[in-house]
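Subgroup meeting minutes
Present: P.N., E.W., G.H.
Scribe: E.W.

1. P.N. recapped why we're keeping a running log of single-chain structure predictions: easier to compare across weeks, and new members can see raw inputs and outputs side by side.
2. G.H. added today's entry (245 aa).
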Amino acid sequence: MRRNWTRTELILAINLYCKTQFGRIHNRNPEIIKLSKLIDRTPSSVSYKLANFASIDPSLPRKGASNVSKLDIEVWNEFFNDWEKLAFESEKLVSKYDKKSLATDIEILPLEGYDRESVVKRRVNQAFFRKTVLASYNFSCCITGLSITELLVASHIIPWSKDEKNRLNPRNGLCLNALHDKAFDKGIISITEKFRIIVSSRLKKNTKFPEKELINKYDGQLISLPNRFLPDSEFLSYHRKHIFN
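Output recorded in log:
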């Protein structure tokens, strides 16, 4: 007899959907097999549920499977309307089912003015955001194509401190290497609504630094687009208006 999916199982599945490369949603993926064991379902059932989510993901130009339930849609909307809350809730559920400490895989350093619980939540959410953004871009910098994971950054388009609601929204993220992340953060480069890179005139005119060509040569180039969670045009507009100069 077929067993209906619960809200908890769906939250765990959405968490995995966010952190899984699009081409790896299949029943041979070790992470899908692992989740299937934790919730007592088959790998095929879990992979099919993840494919179902693709059909209701507004960031995807294509559609996946379409056999979605009312609860699928309700939990999906709950998650995507409150990233801050549901990302953390989903990570807590992952640690509970996996019988691991929530902070096992992240570095917890003290932050002035924050208690340990707040620091753990912030670090856990930041780790979730990084995994989601990097997976969306297939672990490659969207400007240079660099794929050394240790040198990749999940960059916020609207800075963390400026938009609490969208801190963990992956459509507010870009996968960049460390150099171009810093250039983006400092407003030396930005991205148009057509997803082309623009370089600040203050760098173009600067004759002091020959290294500027590491950035200038990408002026006008299209970024490599993610498989899902396409950068939001409103977020890109904010960056060009308030940070780029």
